[in-house]
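REQUEST
  id: r-88c1
  op: predict_structure
  target: RNase P modulator RnpM
  payload:
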Amino acid sequence: MSKQRKVPLRKCVATQEMFPKQALIRIVKTKEGQIFVDPTGKKNGRGAYISKSIDAIHKAEKTHALDKHLETQIPQEIYEELKQLIEG
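RESPONSE
  id: r-88c1
  status: 200
  body:
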């Protein structure tokens, strides 16, 4: 019998719901203060996770959830990039 591997859960900064890491998109802030979308989830820096839903992105944009979590102003391009990722 093989042991079931624990699925890493993360909390969406917009909806406050817990999801498996794969179901979320990671946004990273580096030490240099750069902000970017990290589809691999492996880049260095402080990460914030957001659900792969347009509603979650609109909510994060409205409530400034990402700004608060990463302690910086999130550029509009990041939200645009997230929307494009979700819409494919």
